[in-house]
Amino acid sequence: MTENISNCCTDKTALDKIAAIAKTWKGRKDMLIEVLLQAQKLADNAITEDVAEIIAKEMGIPLSTVCNAISFYAMFSTEKRGKYIIRMCKSAPCHIKGAEAVMQAFEKALDISCGGTTSDGLFTLETCECIGVCDRAPAVMINDEVYGPLTPEEVIKIVADYRQRREEK
Ligand code: FES
């Protein structure tokens, strides 16, 4: 049932936290998406097989239900991703206003291609459909924060700021 989910392991501390969250909502299938969102944040932005199994067990719902939700919603990933997920809007208004040049600037600044994750595990670069801020085109989301309108020059500063955040921790 979990054949489409990565079987790499999530660390024990994260798994324990996920188990505790899932247990809170035992029998509440309507809370599955919320639990998955919280779990994904705790587990390197990925719902791996062990995470899916512990959610199913602690919520008391079938593993197939958990797996179906993960594969249905684009916001869930089964592969480990970076701490910061950069989602470049590729819909028409952003495209017209220069999204491609901004994407190239991210690729260059991070030394990865779209879809990739930096070797330090800090950034994953993806595209997405309209994020609802077309007046700020071209726009990106980095985790829950929106940036735009962006220029290629600003990309370099944003990436440096995020790298700085890590060094301050
Ligand atoms: S088209 Fe990019 S935010 Fe709407």
Overall helicity: 40-55%
For the record, what CATH class of the largest domain applies?
A: Alpha Beta
How many domain modules?
Answer: 2
Q: What is the overall shape?
A: elongated
Describe the sheet with the most strands: 4 strands, mixed
Low-confidence region ranges: none
| SSE pattern | HHHHEHHEEEH
Number of helices: 7
Which fold name fills CATH's third level, the topology of the largest domain?
Glutaredoxin
| CA-CA gap between termini | 39 Å
**Cα-based radius of gyration, to the nearest Å:** 17 Å
Assigned CATH superfamily of the largest domain:
Glutaredoxin
Model description:
- The protein has 169 residues and is α+β, with helices and mostly antiparallel strands.
- It has two domains: 12-72, no CATH class; 84-168, Glutaredoxin (3-Layer(aba) Sandwich), CATH 3.40.30.
- Helix content is 47%, strand content 11%.
- The chain is built from seven helices and four strands; from the N terminus they run ααααβααβββα.
- Strands 2-1-3-4 form a four-stranded mixed sheet, covered by helices on one side.
- The model has no long low-confidence stretch (mean pLDDT 91).
- It binds FE2/S2 (inorganic) cluster.
- FE2/S2 (inorganic) cluster (FES) binds next to α5.
